[in-house]
Amino acid sequence: MKNFINLMSIVLLATLAVFGTKITQAQDDRDGHQRKKPVQVKFSTVMRGTPFIQETMFTVPRNKQLTIEFVSCFAQVPLGQFILVGMDTDGGGPAPFDFFATKVATLPNAQFFEQPDLFMVSQQVRLFADPATEVKLRVTRSLVTGDDVSVTCAFAGQLSEDKKSR
Description:
Blueprint: H1 2-34, E1 37-47, E2 52-59, E3 64-77, E4 83-88, E5 97-100, E6 103-105, E7 117-129, E8 134-141, E9 149-161
């Protein structure tokens, strides 16, 4: 009888250990999901007499990780010029840098009225930035001649607890 009770105790403890762990993991998942916070950032700048800019759009808070899920940009560029738009999330490490597909929006009679070309980006992405790093916008234009280039970019994503900082 003693052996049966000891065996039942061991089985009961093992069952509690296995199911207790699963319950704890489910609670962690639920807590982790609740810790995600939506983020939307909009940033505007003007390129005056320079072919390249790199400006900080957002700094990731300590103990958080940023996941960027969507990027959009709009730029007015002097007629006949083009731009390259990218985002840097490296924080000083190896350069995880992404260029986005830019499209020229053609307006009726734009060349006749010498209106600027309009470049747009609208792209679903999955980019990550670690705690305390800067998300930088990079824009390069083809020529420095002509008028200034005005650029407005935005991104949407989520901030979550950084698992390494727990």
